[in-house]
Amino acid sequence: MRPAALRAEGWGWQHAGRRGWAVRGLDLRVEPGERVLLLGPSGAGKSTLLKAFAGVLGDDEGEGEGRLLVDGEDAAAARGRVGLVLQAPDANIVLERVGDDVAFGCENLRVPAADIPARVSAALAAVGLGVPLDRSTAALSGGQQQRLAVAGVLAMGAGAVLLDEPTANLDPRGVPAVRDAVLAAAAGATLVVVEHRVDVWQDHVDRVVVLEPGGGVLAEGPPRRVLQEEGRALAAAGVWVPGFVPRPPRTPRPGGAPLLVAEALAVGRDGAAVASGIDATARSGGALAVLGPNGAGKSTFALTAGGLIPPVAGRLEALPALGDRLRAEPIRWRSRELLPRIGSVFQQPEHQFVAPTVRQELAVGPRALRLGEQAVAARTTEVLETLRLGALADANPFTLSGGEQRRLSVATALATAPKVLVVDEPTFGQDARTWSGLVDLFERLLDDGSSVIAVTHDERFADALGADRLVLA
User: Other CB atoms closer than 10 Å to residue 161's CB: what's the count?
Assistant: First the structure.
């Protein structure tokens, strides 16, 4: 398929129910076959722009202005010319089995049936997803789902490939392989990548474009020139710039009294273990980083530690400093008993949103604890300010950017002031400024005697907290 040309002419988009514009007055040209790294602070409209080019922003989702063109045709009428990998891995999944899901885009583009199996196999091999074609897509880890989404777009052979944080949930060893697979499979196609891991892509793109929140283009040009000549200003704006480190590593925290202990723990679903032999302790004032490759059972461990699914074997117990006089096993606690003791933040933020506005979402937990309305309002306002979500208080959570949704999911857990906070990929989608803000927040929690258990691929985050390591193989 021939490479596509992308154009934005005075284009803007305002999400329904939002006062501010996600993007406005944007003029941008991406030439056929060009490779562009699209940067900008969290909330600058990067994901919105990609969705619009792919023709998946509906009139009921907001209001647009200006023109957005694919090969000179309105983007909404050019579906099929553009392949998109969304920021949330599971949002890309359509069908129940891996092979069928990769084939879905090909079938919609009317690729000859005889050609589809070879495309599916080649795409899965390219991204390193070595699972059976009949594997349930729901059984994949977040990182595996991300590889699956990239494979589906590569199999389509689209004229333009748009990738929104394609390596964010991948373990560090898998990042270069997936990047190289994308570059090889998209050879000749137009490529636009939104990514906070700038160092991964800077030597493999033709141009960097930096968006300004609510406005147009803040900077653009050859990667080395933009990142070197304007690096300090971009870093101050929140852009991840190689060589600019928001927070240096800190000395490991020894932690205090043990709160939650795992011994010879095996975790899994339906009685089948995905990880076993786990020994770990969450201590007051201490952080524990849970590391390991995709599919190693990190998220399953987080759900188990959060008292949300039962252990397969071994011991997971809350000590008196956490559980008071409750039964030792958190899985046996009622939700009202869990809320002030163990808070959980899921890998996909949107999985825990239940209210129509950000403010109402933050009030759900405190109200479940039967706090008075005055106390609920005070706690909600405090958390809104702490995580810089005040301007979004009346927005629908599902209209937020990926980074904003992540901060909201952390905020919902903090609203109940738990003694142990279990977070899965807490820095996903964060720019350098909001990343640093999250580190500040977690450090304050630790200083106040809480414990943080963080499933993460972000070594900088673990270093900044002085966290102990639990590595699952």
Answer: 27
What is the C-alpha separation between 240 and 167, in angstroms, rounded?
15
**Single pTM value for the model:** 0.82
Q: Which of 347, 346, 439, 350 is nearest to 401 (CA)?
A: 350
pLDDT tens profile 254-267: 889 999 999 999 99
User: Would you place residue 59 in the very low, low, confident or very high pLDDT band (cuts 50, 70, 90)?
Assistant: confident
Distance set, CA 229 to CA 78, 138, 199, 219, 238 (Å): 37, 45, 16, 11, 16
Do 302 and 422 form a contact (C-beta atoms < 8 A)?
A: yes
Q: Which residue type, as a one-letter code, is found at position 212?
A: E
Cα–Cα dist 429/403, whole Å: 4
Pair 4, 159: CB distance under 8 Å: yes
Task: Give residue-wise pLDDT tens across range 289-320.
Answer: 999 998 899 999 999 999 999 999 999 999 99
Q: For the ranges 100-109, 191-200, 402-411, 447-456, which has the lowest average pLDDT?
A: 402-411
Report the alpha-carbon angle 145-427-379, nearest 5. Answer: 120
pLDDT digits (tens, 9 = 90+) for 236-245: 889 999 988 8
Phi and psi torsions of 201, nearest 5°:
-110, -15
Region of 322 please: left (phi>0), alpha (psi -120 to 50) or beta.
Answer: alpha
Distance CA 183, CA 156 (A): 14
Distance in angstroms (rounded) separating the CA atoms of residues 99 and 104: 9
CA distances in angstroms from 249 to 252, 314, 437, 463, 464, listed in the order given = 9, 34, 15, 5, 4
Secondary structure of the chain in HEC code, one letter for each residue: CCCCCEEEEEEEEEECCCCCCCEEEEEEEECCCCEEEEECCCCCCHHHHHHHHCCCCCHHHEEEEEEEEECCEEHHHCCCCEEEECCCHHHHCCCCEHHHHHHHHHHHCCCCHHHHHHHHHHHHHHHCCCCCCCCEHHHCCHHHHHHHHHHHHHHHCCCEEEEECCCCCCCHHHHHHHHHHHHHHCCCCEEEEECCCHHHHHHHCCEEEEECCCCCEEEEECHHHHHHHCHHHHHHCCCCCCCCCCCCCCCCCCCCCEEEEEEEEEEEECCEEEEEEEEEEEECCCEEEEECCCCCCHHHHHHHHCCCCCCCEEEEEECHHHHCCCCCCHHHCCHHHHCCCEEEECCCHHHHCCCCCHHHHHHHHHHHCCCCHHHHHHHHHHHHHHCCCHHHCCCCHHHCCHHHHHHHHHHHHHCCCCCEEEEECCCCCCCHHHHHHHHHHHHHHHHCCCEEEEECCCHHHHHHHCCEEEECC
Query: Are 265 and 311 in contact, with CB atoms under 8 Å apart?
Result: yes
